[in-house]
Amino acid sequence: MNCVRVFAGALAVAAVSATLGLTTPADARTTKDAVTTAAGAPSTVKIVRDGITLVHQRTPVGGHTLTGQGPTRSDFDGDGRDDLAVTNGQGVVVAYSSAPIRDYLTTELPAAVPMGCTCLGRDIVTGNFNGDKYDDLVVANFDEADLKVKATFAGAVWIILGGPGGLRVDQVTHVNQSTSGVSGTSAASDAFGSTLAAGDVTGDGMDELLIGIPNKKVGGKKEAGAVVVLKGSSTGTVTSGAQWLDQSTPGVPGAPEYRDHFGQSIAVGKLNKNKYRDVVIGAPWEDDGKQFWGGSGVVTQFWGSSAGVSLKKITTVSGHATAPIAKPQEIVLWYFGTSLVIADTTGDGTGEVIVGSAHAQVNVTRNIITNAGVVASLTVRSTGMSVKGMILLSQRDKNIAGGVEDNDSFGRSLAAGDITGDGIADVLVSVSEDVGKVMEAGSVVLLRGSPKGLTGAKSQTLSQSSAGVPGSPEADDYFGSGMAVLNLDGAGGLDAAIGAPGEMIPGDPEFFPSGTVTTMFGTGKGLGNGVDISGRSLGVPGEGYGFLAHQ
Q1: How far apart are CA 71 and CA 74, in angstroms?
Q2: Smallest Cα–Cα separation from 146: which of 124, 174, 166?
Q3: What is the pLDDT of residues 434-483, one digit of tens each?
Q4: Quick check: 58 and 39 in contact, CB under 8 A?
Q5: Which residues on neighbouring strands pair with residue 519, listed in sequence order?
């Protein structure tokens, strides 16, 4: 399951209930909806780009005419509510809050060229790349072959614009390292598109797309890693003026080294009060094996500018550099930067860099707990990012339920937004833990923002054994493997979608789970009761759908 991730947007609960035949929870907000009756037969369109075929099937379903307010993150049809896109790493399903259709996306390789993998959705992200009122979808296959140079597992991304009828398959862009304007040359196992992020770096109202290539050979060093930045425009993402970033780029601290994996994690967000979104890039394998007993991994912070990602005043924080603060707390931050998000967790209008260190060591009563996981919050000032004032949170915190255990991987993935409605961003943290005696059932912790920063106080831990969460914990459910913070009901606040790709649904064959996504509304106390959407109800039974993504 570790090889697959998903994107998610989400339906409003009312729309989910009507469209998918689910039960609305007692605390769900009600709306007056006009139901649209499904009619007609599915249609299939094949779009060929660079020798690879994107297969788009559109199926009529019952729908609702809905409206909403507040910011959105995956509103492909422009009705003011986020839509749901879900994947198992081999295909993507998109269900809309209003449009009476459901979209299915897969890829095909030419029969005569059996290279690479048709693993669409290995990462997936949303953004608004052309500045209209519709969010757009980017789907990666970092194992896709580049047929032009015959490179297997080189990687590529597919960019699909949104519109009034949902995703516009007549507006599809395919990008790999052979695309004109993109630096570099595809090589086997580059993993172009292994990570994705989006945000308005140039401040022109159109998002940029950042594409991680963590396995890229740089300066003769294998798997040193790189990131490509594509600009937004009135027509969508363009490759002209694309930026290439790696640790040999002038101005970027450090140097390319074997297995640094620069670009393994990327975040875009607002770190100061100007109009440009800023960028943080993780290289979690930096310093691995160098006998730095204070930690490993590094995150690099860049400022946004009208020209793109600025190469001035770049700052870094390494796992080793955190030791003066972490060691007195009996913590060692190994592989610092396995996950990243930027969020204003103090409510002062500027963001903090939230770093997941899923393999961090936490010592408890002289016992060394490996891969326990820690989340760090780094403050960014006008001079950049530093460890000064760093906040460290783990399950050793008395306010966070669960307890510290080997291989819990607290912080393997992160998602952020103001769930509690107090004007301060909160952070969702995935935990790959056992629930009771149930192996790898999984849980999610909601950490609250406060004027003093991210805190474990009033935190909320959710698993399928929690009241209000549908289902029950089962071995290998992986609840929390996918997470997204979204505008589900159009009420202006933010809510959550949580994936459990290993969840078995009645009727699933053994070892072939359909997977689920649980949608939950935000409240002043945290997340309210949830509703399950299964892969079976989405028309993809037994396929392990439920991985969720990010912006």
Answers
A1: 10
A2: 174
A3: 999 999 999 999 999 999 999 999 999 999 999 999 999 999 999 999 99
A4: no
A5: 497, 531
Collect all residues with Cβ–Cβ distance below 8 Å to 275 and sequence separation of at least 6: 200, 203
The residue type of 215 is: N
H helix count then E strand count, the chain: 2, 38
Q: For 168-194, what is each residue's pLDDT tens digit?
A: 999 999 999 999 999 999 999 999 999
Torsion angle, alpha carbons of 23, 28, 32, 37, to 10: -30
Give the bridge partners for 46, in sequence order: 55
Nearest of 218, 157, 148, 224 to residue 186 by alpha carbon: 148
**Which residues are CB-neighbours of 364 under 8 A, at least 6 positions away?**
330, 396, 404
Q: What whole-number distance in Å separates Cα of residue 460 and Cα of residue 520?
A: 13
The H-or-E segment that residue 323 falls in is helix 323-326
H-helix or E-strand containing 18? helix 13-20
Gap between the Cα atoms of 402 and 435, Å rounded: 9
pTM, two decimal places? 0.92
3-state secondary structure of 195: strand
Go through the chain and tell me how many residues it has. 551
| pLDDT tier, 39 (very low <50, low <70, confident <90, very high otherwise) | low
Query: CA 163, CA 441: separation in Å to the nearest integer?
Result: 38
Contact 486, 82 (CB under 8 A): yes
Q: Which residue has the higher pLDDT, 38 or 434?
A: 434
Task: Say which residues have a Cβ less than 8 Å from residue 167's Cβ, sequence separation at least 6.
Answer: 76, 94, 103, 137, 160, 161
